[in-house]
């Protein structure tokens, strides 16, 4: 009995690790796509030859939205900025992802708030994700200016796990211009200042222009019209998702799949060893069953039930551990019903397969062995 319980415990821990790894990957995907899915863009106009603004850096003139707005089929345009920056609060470093909202055409109504309100002013207001630890009414110092937290959002983090701090485009440009004087001199010397969002010409620069097309408009036609300019790249929402999932996250997905496969095989080996050992210890009982006329399928069923019971109990323990511990993790661990369903089927199949060695040994037992 103790061996059975310990095996269930071990399988439960291994399966909890598997659920955690899959959940971590799902969480990273969710965080990577949270802005792409939420901002409501049909097309993204970014720097020519780049795959920005999420997979790599992009810088376009801040007045590019006016040129894009004149294209046939375009309903509305918004400017977009996002970059990571580390600040210091009360002597402690805090890294956040500054995300610019093009007020007043965009008040941030697509951001899921749990407290406060959306933007009502073009300057000095901010909406912070709850992971940053700010509350409505807090005032934070970013560079030379003080910003008031007017709203608190939930689930708004970037692919690195840094909480998003939403400010207006004007404020995002000002914050991004905060460089030590020595760094500004280096930027000028290296002629890289024009590539930094917020610097450049008189209007500054932004990461991308968000395009919403008219109802019924052919997005491919609009996209081709803008791409013919030659100085910008145009990406659809599907392009952005493809670049992130198969580009930046592709290797991570393969690696997690390899670890998951390895752990499942370890579970299979543990169950097989336990069931085989238990069968060896019950050779006398098995031979007695055969002596009184028990059919092979009865013995096979008993062994398979034991293996399936270990897998089932281990899975229940793993699910209980996962839903108890993972919500307390600092990064999002997204446990989906589809993942649990697939893992359950795979584990049960492996458990039954693991009983093959024990079944083979049990079928080799002769009824006369009980008399030995």
UniProtKB/TrEMBL annotation:
**Compartments where located:** Cell membrane
Domain ABC3 transporter permease C-terminal, chain residue ranges per copy: 258-363
Residues forming the MacB-like periplasmic core domain are 5-227
Q: Which UniProt keywords apply?
A: Cell membrane, Membrane, Transmembrane, Transmembrane helix, Transport
Q: Is Transferase among this UniProt entry's keywords?
A: no
Q: What is its main location?
A: membrane
Which segments cross the bilayer? 256-277, 298-326, 332-359
Tell me the membrane topology, using the record's own terms: Multi-pass membrane protein
**What is this protein identified as?**
ABC transport system permease protein
Question: Which InterPro entries does UniProt cross-reference here?
Answer: ABC-4/HrtB_transporter, ABC3_permease_C, MacB_PCD
Which Pfam families does UniProt cross-reference here?
FtsX (PF02687), MacB_PCD (PF12704)
């Amino acid at each position: 009995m103790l061996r059975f319980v310990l095996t269930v415990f071990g399988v439960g821990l291994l399966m909890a690790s598997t659920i955690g790894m899959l959940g971590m990957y799902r969480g990273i995907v969710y965080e990577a796509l949270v802005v792409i899915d939420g901002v409501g863009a049909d097309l993204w106009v970014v720097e020519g030859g780049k795959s920005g603004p999420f997979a790599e850096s992009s810088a376009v003139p801040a007045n590019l939205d006016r040129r894009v707005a004149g294209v046939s089929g375009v309903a509305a345009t918004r400017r977009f900025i996002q970059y990571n920056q580390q600040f210091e609060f009360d002597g402690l470093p805090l890294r956040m992802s500054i995300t610019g909202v093009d007020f007043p055409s965009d008040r941030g109504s697509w951001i899921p708030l749990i407290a406060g309100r959306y933007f009502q002013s073009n300057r000095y207001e901010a909406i912070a994700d709850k992971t940053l630890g700010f509350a409505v009414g807090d005032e934070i110092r970013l560079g030379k200016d003080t910003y008031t937290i007017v709203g608190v959002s939930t689930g708004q983090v970037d692919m690195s796990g840094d909480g998003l701090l939403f400010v207006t485009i004007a404020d995002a440009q000002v914050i991004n211009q905060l460089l030590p004087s020595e760094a500004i001199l280096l930027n000028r010397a290296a002629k890289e200042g024009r590539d930094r969002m917020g610097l450049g010409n008189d209007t500054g620069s932004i990461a991308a222009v968000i395009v919403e097309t008219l109802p019924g408009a052919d997005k491919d036609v609009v996209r081709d019209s803008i791409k013919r300019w030659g100085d910008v790249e145009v990406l659809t929402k599907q392009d952005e998702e493809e670049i992130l999932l198969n580009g930046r996250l592709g290797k991570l997905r393969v690696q997690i799949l390899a670890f998951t496969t390895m752990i499942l095989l370890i579970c299979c080996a543990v169950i097989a060893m336990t069931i085989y050992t238990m069968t060896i210890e019950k050779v006398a009982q098995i031979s007695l069953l055969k002596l009184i006329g028990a059919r092979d399928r009865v013995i096979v069923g008993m062994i398979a039930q034991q293996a399936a019971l270990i897998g089932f109990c281990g899975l229940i323990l793993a699910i209980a551990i996962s839903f108890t511990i993972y919500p307390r993790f600092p990064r999002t661990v997204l446990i989906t019903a589809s993942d649990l369903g697939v893992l359950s089927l795979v584990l049960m199949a492996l458990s039954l397969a693991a009983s093959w060695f024990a079944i083979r040994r049990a079928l080799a037992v002769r009824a006369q062995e009980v008399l030995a």
